[in-house]
């Protein structure tokens, strides 16, 4: 139940939401991890969450939760406390608050940058992708580094997070929320490389 999930979170459990990024953006449990089943799910959970920490699954169907559990058990994650019954509707109907992110595509981000609107762009791709081309002025913060470097990001302007496809950006966005950032924009779409008019610097 929502109450049990909340209690487990207070006790240190990690809530992992397995939905698509656009669905997570529309409403999710504050402080949850977004790691969708549409990507390398177990690899990212294994990288971000210490083995032995209890995990609660959320957002998916029963079939998706069972598959998520199977994948996690294959990498030695056997402390699955359960799954949120009834999804986000049950969480909200219990009187608990959902968090939301704005979802945009890469063209929207490009328009904002050209218009010089106040914004921090966080590039969550790896070093090789960054070196091949990136948005001038962006902050390079590979997904696993986000929890350790989030305090480098200004709280004064919205933060737009992108990667190559939107999948890793969704993970990074959830980590930024855990770090206390409030105005988070998930760039959920493909980033052509090189992206005209944005070219790698140097």
The class by helix and strand makeup works out as alpha/beta
Order of helices and strands: HEHEHEHEHEHEHEHEHE
Mean pLDDT over all positions = 92
End-to-end gap: 52 Å
Number of strands: 9
Apparent shape = globular
Strand order of the largest sheet: 5-9-8-6-7
The radius of gyration over CA amounts to 17 Å
Can you give the helix content as a percent range?
25-40%
- Strand-residue fraction? 15-25%
Q: How can the largest sheet be summarized?
A: 5 strands, parallel
What is the tally of helical segments? 9
Describe the protein in words.
The protein has 202 residues and is α/β, with parallel strands linked by helices. Helix content is 37%, strand content 15%. The protein contains 9 helices and 9 strands. The protein has helices spanning 2-10, 21-26, 41-48, 62-74, 87-93, 106-114, 127-132, 146-149, 167-178, and strands at residues 14-17, 33-34, 55-58, 80-83, 102-104, 120-123, 139-140, 159-162, 184-187. The strands form 2 sheets. The chain has a 5-stranded parallel beta sheet with strand order 5-9-8-6-7. The chain has a 4-stranded parallel beta sheet with strand order 2-1-3-4, with helices on both faces. Helix 7 (127-132) links the parallel strand 6 (120-123) and strand 7. The longest helix is centred in the middle third of the chain and has 13 residues, at 62-74. The chain is globular, with a radius of gyration of 17 Å. The N and C termini lie far apart (52 Å).
């Amino acid at each position: 139940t929502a109450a049990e999930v909340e209690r487990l979170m207070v006790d240190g459990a990690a809530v992992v939401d397995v939905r698509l990024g656009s669905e997570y953006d529309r409403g999710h449990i504050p402080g949850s991890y977004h790691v969708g089943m549409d990507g390398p799910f177990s690899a990212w959970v294994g990288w971000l969450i210490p083995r032995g920490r209890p995990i609660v699954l959320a957002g998916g169907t029963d079939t998706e939760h069972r598959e998520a559990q199977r994948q996690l058990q294959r990498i030695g994650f056997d402390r699955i406390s359960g799954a949120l019954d009834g999804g986000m509707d049950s969480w909200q109907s219990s009187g608990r608050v959902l968090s939301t992110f704005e979802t945009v595509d890469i063209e929207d981000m490009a328009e904002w940058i050209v218009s010089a609107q106040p914004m921090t762009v966080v590039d969550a791709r790896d070093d090789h992708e960054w070196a091949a081309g990136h948005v001038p002025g962006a902050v390079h913060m590979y997904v696993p580094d986000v929890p350790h470097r989030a305090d480098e990001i200004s709280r004064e302007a919205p933060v737009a997070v992108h990667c190559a496809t939107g999948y890793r950006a969704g993970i990074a966005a959830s980590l930024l929320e855990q770090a206390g950032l409030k105005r988070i924009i998930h760039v959920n779409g493909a980033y052509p490389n090189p992206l005209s008019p944005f070219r790698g610097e140097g």
